[in-house]
Amino acid sequence: MQLNQFLVLSAFLFGTGIYGVLARRNGVLVLMSVELMLNAVNINLIAFSAFNRNVGGQVFALFVIAIAAAEVGVGLAIVLLIYRNLRSPDLDEVDQLKG
Amino acid sequence: MLDAVWIVTALPAASFLVILFFGKRLPKKGAGIGIAAVGASFVLSCITAAQWIDHVNAAEGHSVGLGAFVGKGMLLSGSEHAVVKPVVHSITWWHNGGVSFGVGTYVDGLTVMMMFVVTIISLLVHIYSTGYMRGDHRYTWYFACLSLFTSSMLLLVVADNTLQMLVGWELVGLCSFMLIGFWWEDPANSRAAIKAFLTTRTGDIGLMIGVIILFFAVGSFGIEKTNVYASGPLGQHDILLAASVCLMIAIMGKSGQFPLHTWLPDAMAGPTPVSALIHAATMVVAGVFLGARLYPVFYDGFSIGNGGVNMMALIGGITILIGAVLAFVQQDIKKVLAYSTISQLGYMVMALGVGAWVAAVFHLFTHAFFKALLFLGAGSVSHGGTHHSFDMREMGGLRKSMPITFWTFLIGSLALAGIFPLAGFWSKDEILVNAGANGFDVFLVIGLVGAFLTAAYMTRCVYLTFFGEYRGTHHPHESERSITIPLIVLAGFSILAGLVNAAPLGLEKFAEYVQPTFAFPDLMHVEFDYPKAILSVALATLAIGIAAFYWFRREEFGALEGLTKRNKVAHAGYAFLENKYYLDHLYEDVIVDGIRGPIARASYWVNQHVIDGVVNGAGRGAKTVGQFAYGTVDQRVVDGAVNGLARETGAAGGELRKIQTGQVQRYALLLFAAVGLLSLALFLTNVL
Which terminus of chain A is less hemmed in, N or C, by CB atoms within 10 Å? Predict the structure, then answer.
């Protein structure tokens, strides 16, 4: 296996994540896209770790997973509050800070 | 226990904090905690008193060799009594500039006696208040204040240094301010509170200066050292005189002595149990306590041992008479009692002034019981008889509907009038006997006149309240048990308290256990004097007779009725008394306005001529410069720059605000676009 294969997969996942974050209107899907981006990073970390025989990358990947779990908790709570206040998960309607 | 009396002070302080923070959630809304704490303090005070008596007895048992303290002109101890040093326990509070400030306890007979009086009166007032204050919307806060009041007074009483006394003294003043103005929604009440606070503050300045003088003379704030200094050969008369005068001003303010007594009658605005506490055990006796505690200072400063008129005795004597006379023209039962307190405090101060230390302290002791009884009785009358009115014109005939209140009030009045064998007789008589024996004949006469007046105004008060026809519009009924039980207990003390120091019966516990023997002037021990005792009782009885005769058979004295309206002299006298000798006018109109007027006029003149000239000149110069600056510099250069800048900023903002859409995804887009651009730049610069 070559390192490039992992990096291409990772770049594809990251691109999908960016697309989801920028284009999706549903807050839950935006959160899922963020998760995709984080996992893309994880793949990168582990690939490099295996390739360079350095455990540090895997440790970082574990940290990222843990932080992702916390981030989802906070994110879902925010989405829930948005839904409760606006009766819709549509993020385009959340523009109260418009200048 | 003699080393640990701080617990007695700490208990009510702790209860104050507990009630303050948790009171509303506690059962009985905090009253239970207050009563428990003060009750425990009372028990501990009794234990302390018992231990002090043991301590003295033990010292008397093997006393040889200790009694060798020889003071300046006064022999301390001697063959009769051993020198019993006070038990002092002190810790360092803080150090500053080589001086260490301590806080501690100083236990001797006087401390023990005061602790007993303060805790028992406070305990009874607490119990009474659960009935009297029921349903008040600040009930919990009230009990918190009572606890703090008790604790502050105990802090003052056990103080081992003058600085700690000052702290307790001010705390007592603060608490009385809070409680006098307890119903502050009525502006009259808050005015009375402010008046009490400011008047006593006037005296407090005297205390502060006195404490400072003594500190520099003695080199320490310690009471023990101060008394040793004052009674020893080192004491300089001039310094002690200055200190005594300053401390005397403090006593005048706190203990309602002429001419700073005017706050005391107004202090009746507070709840009645508070009046009882203020007048019997705490606030006002603080002054007398100060006089008794630092007695060697006064003794030397005012040369009390020499006989003759001195400031202390004179102030006390004047106060006896003016207080007693004013009590005659009051329609408010509490104000009668307030003026009576002023008069009785006059007795105590006069007794200190004539060298009758034991008599003064003894009178403080007995007065606490019967004056608390009278105030609580007056509260009971208003609680059950007239529904919160203290006007004696709405009372009358209450003896049938309120028998317990009537009998206890009567006992209190007779004790106050000094009728044998009630408490007031023994203490008042001791003052008179001492005044005569120490060569203060003028003050003996004043005391006798005061006794006559006291008996007469109390007769009037009792008659108007309890005899004749009921003049109110309510249905009087006896108060509940929480109110009558304290009355009965106090009535018991009013009858029996005098026997503690009844000279002819051979009981002289005060001279034995309360009077200090260490660093204390060698006061003359006066034998009981039957003629003077009989004379004072006869005068009091005569006064009661005359007053009762007048009031019961008033209709038959057509000539006397309306005398004040027909006779000009009588009317003028009555108006003079009604206006309380115009002292309030003197303070507020003459002194305050007098100071305010000239100062205001002088500052107006300075304002008009000096300051205005300078200001106008400067103004004209400034105006010329200003016009130039305005016309050219400001309008053209500065404004141009400022306005231009503002225009540009505004335009830029207008463009930039288009970016702020409020939509997070747009921001994210910008973010990623920026990241992409930066990555591209890095790629191009590094790889290519």
Answer: N
Percent of chain B with pLDDT over 90: 2
Interchain contact, B664 vs A94, CB within 8 Å: yes
B664 CB neighbours in chain A (<8 A) are 91, 94
Residues across chain B: 688
The dihedral region occupied by B581, where left means phi > 0, alpha psi between -120 and 50, and beta the remainder, is: left
Residue with the two structure tokens 């006069």: B350
Least CA distance to A90: which residue of chain B?
B663
Closest approach of A95 to chain B, Cα-based (Å) = 4
A61 — pLDDT class (breaks 50, 70, 90): very high
Q: The complex's ipTM?
A: 0.81
Instruction: Looking at the complex, report in whole angstroms how far the Cα of residue A78 sits from the nearest Cα belonging to chain B.
Output: 13
Q: What is the pLDDT of residue B517?
A: 77
Interface of B with A (CB under 8 A): 656-665, 668-669, 672
| 8 Å CB contact of A91 and B669 | no
Residues linked to residue B104 through DSSP beta bridges, in sequence order: B90
Is A98 in contact with B665 (Cβ distance < 8 A)?
no
Cis preceding linkage at B259, omega within 30: yes
pLDDT at residue number B580: 63
Q: How far is CA B71 from CA B228, B303, B521, in A?
A: 8, 14, 8
Could you report the per-residue pLDDT of B508-564, keeping only the tens digit for each? 777 777 777 777 777 776 777 777 778 777 887 887 777 777 766 665 555 555 555
Per-residue pLDDT tens digits for B269-319: 888 888 888 888 788 888 889 988 888 888 888 877 776 778 888 888 888
pLDDT of A1-58, one tens digit each?
788 899 999 999 999 999 999 888 888 999 999 999 999 999 999 999 999 999 999 9
Domain ranges of chain A: 3-89
Q: Does A98 touch chain B (CB under 8 A)?
A: yes
Task: Please give the radius of gyration of chain A, using alpha carbons only, rounded to the nearest integer.
Answer: 17
**CB of A82 less than 8 A from some CB of B:** no
The reported pLDDT for the residue numbered B581 is 62
**Is B456 in contact with B547 (CB distance < 8 Å)?**
yes
- Cα torsion A56, A62, A64, A66: sign: negative
Please identify every stretch of chain B with a pLDDT value under 50, giving residue numbers as ranges.
62-79
B684 vs chain A: nearest CA distance in angstroms?
Answer: 19
Phi-psi label, residue B307: left if phi above 0, alpha if psi -120 to 50, beta otherwise: left
Answer yes or no: do B665 and A30 touch at CB < 8 A. Answer: yes
Half-sphere exposure of B76 (CA within 13 A, CB side): 26
pLDDT at A86: 86
CB pairs under 8 A between A and B: 33
**Shortest CB distance from A98 goes to which of B656, B661, B672?**
B661
Q: Using the beta-carbon criterion (under 8 Å), do A91 and B672 form an inter-chain contact?
A: no
Cis before B421 (ω within 30): yes
List of chain A residues whose C-beta atoms are within 8 Å of the C-beta of residue B668: 21-22
Distance separating alpha carbons of residues B434 and B291, to the nearest angstrom: 17
Question: CA of B657 to nearest chain A CA: how many angstroms apart?
Answer: 5
In the CATH scheme, what is the code of domain A3-89? 1.10.287.3510
8 Å CB contact of A95 and B663: yes
Residues of chain A by 3-state class (helix, strand, coil), percent to 5: 80, 0, 15
Pairing outcome for strands B99-107 and B87-96: antiparallel
CB contact under 8 A, B662 and A96: yes
